[in-house]
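FAQ: What does the model actually see?

It sees only this:
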Amino acid sequence: MQDGRPIRIAAAGDIHASEQERARVVEAFAGLDPGIDLVLLAGDLTTCGDPDEAAVLADACRGLAMPVFAVLGNHDWHLNRTHEVVAVLTDAGIRLLDRSSMRFGLRGTEIGVVGLKGFVGGFPDYVLPDFGEPLLRQVYAETSEDVVALDRELEAVEDCDVRIVLLHYAPTTTTLDGEPLGIWPFLGSDRLAGPIADRRPDIVLHGHAHAGAFEGFIGPVPVYNVAIPVTGRDFWIFELAGRERPRAERPAEARAE
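And it is asked to produce this:
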């Protein structure tokens, strides 16, 4: 806690920006509390990965006083024009993380953000093995690269006061309750949980599972599914104070207010 108050984070996933959604997206970012220190976007920034859709989000974020970090999601890859999407977003000041990390100072606190999309692979009883057809083994290998990168980048920010992991795909089943069991292998992989359990960041944020649960865990590490269909809000606000557990009310409680 610095200056008598915690670090305040506004987080959202699955924004699905498009020209048709311009008013909603622009209004959401324009309404951010000036006291927010950091904005984190957990993938599916666009509807289909069109650079024109990315421009809607770029226009909404351009000129914001607080830093904005983001990872891509599966929707952002649909047209396979990610280089153009990233160029549009970075031109507006959005920091895209892709198996990478960034550290920066904020009111005397050293913040480390590790970001990657993640990938599929499944969870206990629903696991894709490293066996069989070459195409399926390529899927396994892709997730393996994510696991290696996640561990490497968490080590790179090990000495930061606050360490955050930003994903799109889920690293745990604890935030998937509500989703049909049959699609769990396509919602993430608990192989991503290994580096998180070992390195113990302060908080993990992801999206993708629209019908999943808001709050979960990997050992003592809190994990939150901040997909907008789950939270029911444009942004969910978290407060982080050093190594203390983040403060966040539950979406069900918020909707009842």
